[in-house]
Design a protein that fits this description.
Number of domains: 1
Mean pLDDT: 95
Number of strands: 12
Radius of gyration: 15 Å
Structural class: alpha/beta
Low-confidence stretches: none
Number of helices: 6
Oligomer: single chain
């Protein structure tokens, strides 16, 4: 299934109210095109509200409550930026638990724009090479990350993007990372 490299894979997209809509809809579209099923995980009750072009945007349905989300139930995690959402996620114990579980297990994770700050909150920035929005750069560098000015940085199974500009390329790379990770996993199981 070359045209659907993520067929049968389920990817969690972690959101809070105020997420950047483009950083959510572009990855979701790319993942679905690659054959993945996407699940919105959030503490928002039923619907989560995006931020689009300087004001509140659309509402999107929540598939799984973040409190009930476990990394083992998914094949990868995407965390879109949007400073309002990132601030909420940084204060939410379940979002930190979920991100930390994916990172600790070495599973595929994509973090875009402002969401790079969450790597600091979960203490997963030190020693990593990443990119992010300019707003997240100082926090990442202070936490010991090596920050690169570019649209996308891939380090192992972690894909980081600088925001909307890098999100399409990041998702191309994330699809490759997820497919490679799970083909290795499948080969070990055989």
């Amino acid at each position: 299934m070359v045209d659907k490299p993520l067929a049968g894979r389920v990817i969690a997209i972690m959101l809070a109210n105020g997420f950047d809509e483009i950083e959510f809809t572009e990855p979701q579209k790319k993942l679905i095109e690659a054959g993945a099923t996407t699940k919105v995980v959030s503490r928002a009750n039923g619907l989560v509200n995006g931020w689009y072009e300087g004001s509140w945007g659309h509402f999107f349905p929540v598939d799984v409550d973040l409190a009930e989300t476990l990394a083992v139930d998914f094949d990868g995690l995407v965390v879109p930026g949007g400073i309002r959402a990132v601030e909420k996620l940084a204060e939410e114990a379940h979002s930190k638990r979920v991100l930390k579980a994916f990172m600790r297990a070495g599973m595929p994770v994509a973090v875009t724009g402002d969401a790079g700050k969450l790597l600091v909150v979960t203490e997963d920035a030190k020693g990593r090479t990443v990119t992010s929005s300019e707003e997240a750069r100082a926090d990442l560098e202070a936490a010991g990350a090596s920050w690169e000015a570019g649209p996308v940085v891939v380090e192992g199974n972690l894909v980081t993007a600088n925001g909307v500009e890098g999100v399409r390329e990041a998702m191309d790379r994330f699809v490759e990372v997820v497919a490679a990770y799970h083909s290795k996993e499948d080969a070990q199981a055989a």
